[in-house]
Amino acid sequence: MAAPAKFLFDTDFAAGTPREPTVTVSEHGAKLAETDAAAYRRGFAEGQRDAEAEIGRRIAATFERIAAGIDQAAGALTAIEARRRMLWLFPTAWKRPRSTKPTGNGFERDTE
């Protein structure tokens, strides 16, 4: 048969010999300040990296918008160049509209 459980209600565990602190208050304060400074430096560096990444994303997006604008302008200039070349090669193929009201850009093909 197992031994009956012994309850230690009457034992005072706090009444032991007083222990010396393993770290002094000044050492603890110095280590705490040191870890706070290191955490601040790590957080600041991470914030800088995040800001630089965001700046890079914004610059890339701006360059993409500029490239799209340049492509659009190049397409418009190509169309203008093709129209001028057509007018130079075939001056009779393009006439002004016969109506009295202005329509379009004035370079529609004469279908009559």
Key phrases:
112 residues; mainly alpha
Short description:
This protein is mostly helical. The chain contains one helix and no strands.
User: Low-confidence spans: pLDDT under 50, at least 5 residues?
Assistant: none
As a whole number of angstroms, the C-alpha radius of gyration is: 43 Å
* Helical/strand content category: mainly alpha
* Element pattern in H and E: H
Biggest sheet record: none
Helix tally equals: 1
Helix content: 55-70%
Strand count = 0
The overall average pLDDT, rounded, is 82
**What's the shape?**
rod-shaped
Q: Between the first and last Cα atoms, what is the distance in angstroms?
A: 121 Å
Describe the structure.
This protein is mainly α and 112 residues long. The protein has a domain of 66 residues. It is built from one helix and no strands. It is rod-shaped and about 120 Å long.
